[in-house]
Design a protein that fits this description.
- The chain is mainly alpha-helical and 81 residues long.
- Helix content is 68%, strand content 0%.
- The termini are far apart.
């Protein structure tokens, strides 16, 4: 684990976050850790999506509505529905 220090946060913002942490029955540090971890997870997902979008060499499956309907019907028939 690493430590991150944030400077120049307004007192008003700190106070709101401290109240939110208290409302959630947690510490301000834990609340901010959750925010940072959630933001990092979202960034990783965006990076992954950007990589998929920019990969010009990959095959792009072409699945039409007709194929989807046919596959659903096949599954239902196999289940006897």
């Amino acid at each position: 684990m690493v430590a991150i220090q944030i400077r120049n946060v307004s007192e008003a913002s700190r106070d709101v976050l401290a109240r939110e942490a208290k409302r959630r029955n947690t510490s301000l540090q834990e609340l901010l850790r959750e925010v940072v971890e959630r933001e990092a997870a979202n960034a990783r997902r965006r990076e992954w999506l950007d990589e998929r979008r920019s990969d010009a060499n990959r095959d792009r499956p072409s699945v039409g509505l007709d194929l989807i309907v046919e596959m659903i019907q096949q599954v239902r028939e196999a289940r006897g529905a």
